[in-house]
Amino acid sequence: MSRDEEYREGTRSVHLPRSPELASDPLVPPVVHSSTFAFETAQEYADVLGGRKPGFSYTRIDNPTAVTFANAVAALEGFGVAADVAGEAFGSGMAAISAVLLAFTGSGAHVVAPAACYGGTFGLLRNVLARFGVESTFVEGNDPAAYRAACRPNTRLIWGETIANPTLAVADLPALATVAHDAGALLAIDSTFASPAVCRPLEHGVDLVIHAATKYLGGHSDATGGAVVGRPDLVAQVRAVRVDTGGILAPDEAYLLHRGLATLPLRVARQCTTAQAFADALVRHPRVARVDYPGLSDHPDHALAKALFDSGRYGGCVTVTPNGDQATGMALCDGLRLARIAASLGGHHTIVSHAASTTHRQLDEAALAAAGIGAATVRFSMGLEDPADLIADAEQSLDAMP
């Protein structure tokens, strides 16, 4: 607006000077809050919105801060992959999971998934997508041969988790990729529990990797988001679902999640070290029936984890099943003084969840048994506290249980 144009007060207040062009590169990506973006011509608007020209039109379609985060996750997951890797950001991990399942299934399609998958994924497949004609087979155990046997001519997607929630079983990624591709299906892997600081599934033939970015990627329990990365043509189909369903990542959340990526290797390395010490200590406690952690030498997937994961990193979660029933597991949680009872995982605080009543509440008794989740099972997500203090906290709670 020219200085010599005599607009009235309201107009002058709305049409203020534009932001200055940045002569220097900001070290931290800026947060772009604008929900809409202006154009010089109607044709330019149409071309950007139609994908014929790069740019931003509307934050539900794309936002610069969210795109910056998605590209960063793609860069971390795509390390070591020769082909191009694209990423899309979402408002939550479940929004990302939903977009992948909606993009590659439809009425009459079939999905193969582990019985021990995350409760939200289980519920989406069994309770929501089933109403629209999507069939699912939930495979017990971790044998790729069982996945192969479960495939049908209409199988479109095989689902897996790099480290299962909460059993901490490790997926045989190369074998599952072969099974999926032999069946003419895609392999989608939820790698939330691993993060690219532990394992990068694209290196092992996986087609799409999904993250609940709320967890390790953000790392501070202060932002909710999700991400999908993979081959650009596949991610484009996921993006189309995101645009149509509106599962966007807000700019402030994108900024916080992007900030977390800078410290991801440092945090995860510490959490893995703590988890190993914690598992080693609690496996010897007389009131513990079972400890699941891939870093334990007697874990059934230890050798597989050693082959697939970055050296010395087996994840930051430990699952502890004390002797007893659901009340026993809840008593273990209630008796902790340092670790907190809370949802989510992967943050700087150590938090615990009683699996059957919280993260896997969607599963009935039969489904819990098929998934290998005990009535007393408690999931510990290690934070950044000193390992000795966390071990002492768990031991005093176990010792105090009736």
Please outline what is shown here:
This protein has 402 residues and is of the alpha/beta class. The protein has 14 helices and twelve strands.
Q: Could you please describe the fold and organization of this structure?
A:
Helices cover 37% and strands 14% of the residues. The chain has 14 helices and twelve strands. The longest helix has 19 residues. It is globular, with a radius of gyration of 23 Å. The mean pLDDT is 95.
Going by helix content, strand content and strand pairing, the class is alpha/beta
Q: Provide the helix percentage.
A: 25-40%
Which strand-content bin applies to the residues? 5-15%
Largest β sheet strand count, sense and barrel closure: 7 strands, mixed
**Euclidean distance between termini CA atoms:** 75 Å
Q: Which stretches are poorly predicted, pLDDT < 50 over at least 5 residues?
A: none
Average pLDDT level:
95
Number of distinct helices: 14
Instruction: Report the strand count.
Output: 12
- Spatially, the strands of the biggest sheet line up as 1-7-6-5-4-2-3
Measured on Cα atoms, how large is the radius of gyration? 23 Å
SSE pattern, N- to C-terminal: HHHEHEHEHEHEEEHHHEHEHEEHEH
